[in-house]
Design a protein that fits this description.
By secondary structure, this protein is mainly beta. The chain has a single domain, classed as Beta-galactosidase, Chain A, domain 5. 1% of the residues lie in helices and 45% in strands. It contains 1 helix and 27 strands. A 9-stranded antiparallel β-sheet has the order 10-11-12-13-27-23-22-17-20, with no helix packed on it. The radius of gyration is 19 Å and the shape is globular. It comes from Acidithrix ferrooxidans. It is an enzyme of class 5 (isomerase). Keywords: Isomerase.
Amino acid sequence: MTKMRPPSGNQATISFGDQKVTTTSVGGGLRRYTKDETEVVEGFEENSIADSTRGQTMIPWPNRIRGARYHWAGKAYQLDLSEARNNNAIHGLTRWQNFELVRSTQESVTYELFLPPTTSWPFMLLCQIRYDIGEAGLRVETTIKNIGDTPAPLATGAHPYISLFGEKIDQLKLQSPAHSYFEKDDQAIPIAKKEVEDTIYDFRKNKKIASVALDHTFSDIDRDKDGLARITLSNDTDSKTTLWMDESYQYLQLYSGDTLPDAKRRRHSIAIEPMSAPPDAFNSGVDLIKLEPEETKSFTWGIEPNLIKS
């Protein structure tokens, strides 16, 4: 009898010391990340799918496109309504594609996907997602090349859910160096940029999340001397996990999981999502990349866990 393949495709595990990362061919996704057998991200089981975008990379756009419609080079395109309740297209085209494993070592794995043209996406991209595990934690690099003969619109993002020992995030602290957030309309599309100062969305100083519901885009993000922006989730026993992102990611989505379909999962982790452009960039053009033929762009983020078991 042929062995059944998991719904998330072939699995590849890399490790370094007490850290272990499991990735999937479907979506080139991050299924599990543990340190000393403690979950760093809220992942999913091998016999499940990556629902709610858990651990997925979003190409060629992150977040939403209003009405699933966009214009490019004077032509109008209609995408599938992948977020029907809000009448949007959401989180790109590669999440459910089966990537090819092209390189694998004890500490590194690389997936590759040819994203073909369609009537709603008439472009050709070669997409690579590389995971490296080391002393400093997990590093994820997304590399995208235009292998077609016309310029292509491009943005990207990642969607890991960070958790600390499964604790409810109401009791956890969040620090995010973002000075601005976006108000949104009833389709969850940003409509106005506001300063975080004197609002419940100001996490520039480490503070408890408490009951704040988050599904917001942030920008104007401070960076350290190394050019990285760092967002940290911590608890009262000095455990913390930091997500960092390089300068290719100018935006951040924070999602507290209040609307997750599975009520038991709500507010037990927080999605910290690096994004190269804001939602609906295919229509607004804000920080949307015009990727020329043969041009390549790379985007890098990572996770640094520092967990102290009580």
